[in-house]
């Protein structure tokens, strides 16, 4: 069904955009602060 080919690509693009947005949000909200906190505690412990 060649009529559906543009919609297939549109669907892929929107799904990828939504997935990237969710990943960026999750990384910035939950994962990256843990790494920063871990690095800061290591730095603080090494300075003692």
Automatic annotation (TrEMBL):
Main location: mitochondrion
Originating organism: Peltigera membranacea
Keyword Ion transport among UniProt keywords: yes
Function: Mitochondrial membrane ATP synthase (F(1)F(0) ATP synthase or Complex V) produces ATP from ADP in the presence of a proton gradient across the membrane which is generated by electron transport complexes of the respiratory chain. F-type ATPases consist of two structural domains, F(1) - containing the extramembraneous catalytic core and F(0) - containing the membrane proton channel, linked together by a central stalk and a peripheral stalk. During catalysis, ATP synthesis in the catalytic domain of F(1) is coupled via a rotary mechanism of the central stalk subunits to proton translocation.
Protein name: ATP synthase protein 8
Protein localization: Mitochondrion inner membrane; Mitochondrion membrane
Signal sequence region: none
Family label: Belongs to the ATPase protein 8 family.
One Pfam family recorded for the sequence: Fun_ATP-synt_8
Top-level taxonomy: Eukaryota, Fungi, Dikarya, Ascomycota, Pezizomycotina
GO cellular component: mitochondrial inner membrane; proton-transporting ATP synthase complex
Designated gene of the protein: atp8
